[in-house]
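INFO  loader      accepted 1 record
INFO  loader      residues=296
INFO  predictor   begin
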Amino acid sequence: MHLTLVLLAAGRSTRYGGLKQLEAFGPGGEMIMDYTIADAVEAGFTKVVLVVSADHRDEFAAKLELHALRDRFQLAFTIQEERLGTGDAARSAASEVNEPFALLNSDDYYGNVNVFRQAADFLSTVNPAEQPMKYALLGYPLGETIPAAGNVSRGICTADESRTLSHLQEVYELHRSEGGSVLGKDATGNAVILTGEELCSMQFWLLAPGFMNEVEKDFQEYLAKPRLPGRAGEFLLTNVIEEHRASGRAQITVLPIAKADCDWCGVTNPEDRVEVMAKLAKKHAEGMYGRLRLPC
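INFO  predictor   done
INFO  writer      dumping tokens
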């Protein structure tokens, strides 16, 4: 079975202050997505779809042509026109997705090749004709994904004993309190207090191809309604998938990341840059990746 990797790369990087998706974080000039693509290809993914804004497509294309594994994956681009949220970004890839696929951020480092093997194993079991549709998300311990400085947003997962997702809530402005708990706010501004032991979504979704038909229906319904101000008015992927679950259109499995593989890092705020660069440099020093970028 062909497996597709969809990378969301059309964000404006407002909090970071620059287009972090194209920025070099590795010691050889690697973008974060270079590592994601390398691990995915080693795990058996054969196609990469990049969702970008129209004004940066050529820059992404030029950079990815220099990926050391370029001859091992098909590359396609789709354009997110209006940037109405992560759900809008996901639906923008529909023209290039006809098979089970993984959908994730381009500016997060998700661990190592074992994480992508776990994803590929699940996707290989997906029957596109099965109803309800089968989705999964990779669940990361929340406390391992909170940066030392700045605030982040996460989708907090609740699952039953069989690891079937029972609730997913987007929480914003998450940060560590002095007492060690994790504090944040929901979409309406209400305080949320968490322990840090919860599993959270890092936007690493494993989806059946039928998701694209459903998210387009959802999007048209979204456009037909008055739009709420602020975050509550965004067409968010977390909310879309939660509605698919609640309405019975999808059954979602939470796949906990093994502790040995839970090595996520990402860039939300400018302060994150030094930590991410140090982590990636260490991985190269340990011989994990070798050369990922070909010389210009």
